[in-house]
């Protein structure tokens, strides 16, 4: 059984035991969160109806907060002496899917 869930602005394919990295969610390590299912596949049965998916819960446990890779932003204008350097690391969260209940 697997599900397609909405996680941090993206769609992810998950099954029980999967560990995935999503955009930052509030919560500390060990906290439980619910992910919104968009599609559920259980053997030959495919569920995509919104009314039936309202009964489906996908539970995940927060493993730890993380940061994404360093991105360097450089702005430069020729002949004016203007240089600007900036960095960014996106805050992320590592979660582990614990249950898919229909």
Automatic annotation (TrEMBL):
Q: Offer a single GO CC term for the protein.
A: ribonucleoprotein complex
The protein's matches in InterPro entries, at most eight in alphabetical order, are given as: bL21-like, bL21-like_sf, Ribosomal_bL21, Ribosomal_bL21_CS
Provide the GO biological process annotations: translation
A Pfam family name for this chain? Ribosomal_L21p
- Tree of life domain: Bacteria
The molecular function terms in GO held by this entry are: rRNA binding; structural constituent of ribosome
Q: What keywords does the record list, in alphabetical order?
A: Ribonucleoprotein, Ribosomal protein, RNA-binding, rRNA-binding
Keyword Membrane assigned? no
**Family per record:** Belongs to the bacterial ribosomal protein bL21 family.
Note the PANTHER family from the entry. Answer: 50S RIBOSOMAL PROTEIN L21, LARGE RIBOSOMAL SUBUNIT PROTEIN BL21M
Subunit annotation: Part of the 50S ribosomal subunit. Contacts protein L20.
Mind telling me which NCBIfam families this protein's record contains?
Answer: L21 (TIGR00061)
Q: What does this protein do?
A: This protein binds to 23S rRNA in the presence of protein L20.
Name of the protein in its database record: Large ribosomal subunit protein bL21
Q: Which gene encodes it?
A: rplU
